[in-house]
Amino acid sequence: MPPGENGHRGFIKGLSLLLFFLLFFPTNAFLEDSKGTEELIRDLRDEAPLVRWQAAEQLGRTQDARAVGPLIEALGDADAGVRREVTKALGEIQDPRAVKPLGKMLDDREEFVRVHALGALEKIGGDEALDLIIGALKNANPLVRVEAAASLGRIEYTRAVGPLEAVAQNDARSYVRFAARQALVQIKGQGIRITPEKARTKRVAVDENTTSLIAEMEQVAERIKDEYGLVLDYQKYDIMDLLDIEARMRMRHPKDTMEGLLGDLLTDKDKERNRYLFFEPKQ
User: Fold this and answer.
1) pLDDT digits (tens, 9 = 90+) for 52-107
2) Is the CB of residue 146 less than 8 Å from the CB of residue 179?
3) Domains of the chain listed by start with CATH number
4) Cα separation of 216 and 210, whole Å?
5) Residues 144, 124: Cα–Cα separation, whole Å
6) pLDDT in tens, 128-181
7) CB-based contact 117:105 (threshold 8 Å)
8) 221-257: burial string, b at 16+ Cβ within 10 Å, e else
9) Helices 239-251 and 174-187, packing angle to 10 deg
10) Contact, 130 vs 160, CB < 8 A?
11) 77 and 52 in contact (C-beta within 8 Å)?
């Protein structure tokens, strides 16, 4: 082999690899994480919803308090996906200034924005935020009521006992009543610290309306199968898990992967059963 030919071939190979990455991974994908807070704040006003979406997501990761004001302003974005990421970002930053604006998002026209607003309020904490979560027990959307009950149970917020008891007795939806009862069990210290794979069906057993609850679970599982192609062994979950799976699928943004959306919820058997759906998102 002539001298220098190895070096020449190595150069050609390296150049080919560089061209490959530039073709399949646009330059902004490399620069995205290197943007400073001020540039990301400017991106919140970009014409492209995806740019605004990414800016909100990255500002949440920075946890920079300078972003709180612009993010609060961005809660009024016309794009529901952007509003979702903005609420999540404010939850990551955990600045009390966001509590009242997030409280208003509990009436957003999109249910998944309301759910993420609850999650953000839970992360921020404090009496004002937790009282807003208690107020969400009366939300018109049953999924929001379920998430509010679950949140109060996780926090073990004793001031929520009275409102949760009212929901447990009077809510029109059996699965909301069930969620409220489970939250009360947690708050009262009888703790149900159960891992995702263990005894999910045993949590159902504490509900006196087991028959109607199982029927509700079956209906949710059927909707998930019909609308999204996910086939689930619904008896391995509780109603809150199933509603969470359905909500996450409904919320799904093209950038979300199935693993990222559902990896923490599905049983191992259902992950394997639905493996063909665990594809990379559309770009």
Assistant:
1) 999 999 999 999 999 999 999 999 999 998 999 999 999 999 999 999 999 999 99
2) yes
3) 26-111 (1.25.10.10)
4) 10
5) 18
6) 999 999 999 999 998 899 999 999 998 999 999 999 999 999 999 888 998 899
7) yes
8) beebeeebebebebebbbbbbbbbbbbbbebbbebee
9) 110
10) yes
11) yes
What single DSSP character describes residue 226? Answer: H
Integer angstrom CA distances of residue 91 from 59, 60, 215, 224: 11, 8, 35, 28
d(CA 234, CA 225): 11
Q: What one-character-per-residue DSSP string does 128-183 give?
A: HHHHHHHHGGG-SSHHHHHHHHHHHHHHT-GGGHHHHHHHHHH-SSHHHHHHHHHH
Computed on alpha carbons and rounded to an integer, the radius of gyration of the chain in Å comes to 23
Place of tokens 């069990």: 185
DSSP per residue, 78-123: S-HHHHHHHHHHHHHHT-GGGHHHHHHGGG-SSHHHHHHHHHHHHH
